[in-house]
Amino acid sequence: MIAAATTPPKLSTLVLLTALSVLSLNMFLPSLSNMAEDLETDYALVSLSIAGYLAITSFLQLIMGPLSDRFGRRPVLLAGLVIFSFASLVCALATNIWVFLAFRLLQGAVISGAALSRAVIRDIAPEQEAASMIGYVSMVMAIAPMLGPMLGGTLDELFGWRASFITFAILGIAVLGLCWVDLGETNKSPSQTLTKQFQTYPELLRSRRFWGYALCMTFSAGGFYFYAYHQ
User: 20 to 30 A Cα–Cα from 139, which one of 99, 105, 223, 224?
Assistant: First the structure.
């Protein structure tokens, strides 16, 4: 059996984790019309696979941070990748829109990669080095959504819309294996209870600095996706 990692991950592992998390959002966007036809449903219903995914990942990010503070980065990341890989395979095999949408939402577990990669960096690197490493991760978050639809469109044209989800499953398993051997636990001071973590949220929501950063990210990402989805 391949030994589990006990040391901090390489930056490349965190970059790939983040790329997979972001790529899964919109890679199959060019396939929506073909999916609606194949699953014999309305285009608007299929498009919920984008809007619903965004909603579930927004919620999951609120709980994955506290979970990783309590139980560790590694188990939360590995669990997210297992769920994502399984859900991707079911999506690829789905013949019913409701089964597809249910497991599409489960794919949202992969957002742990984007959310916790930066937490891992803060665990292992001093402030100046962490800023540089987070810069690389953020660059991937900008590039992956641009390349994703191009890759998904090519897969759809060559093999059909299910190929995107088979690709997700393969990538999920590959990144899971990589994390198993190269992502040791970095949270050396786990919190005592989940309650203490959630109790910090009111203070965060009162922070003007937090809202400044959050709104900048919201409008920059929102502008990109609004443009992309109306082309």
Answer: 105
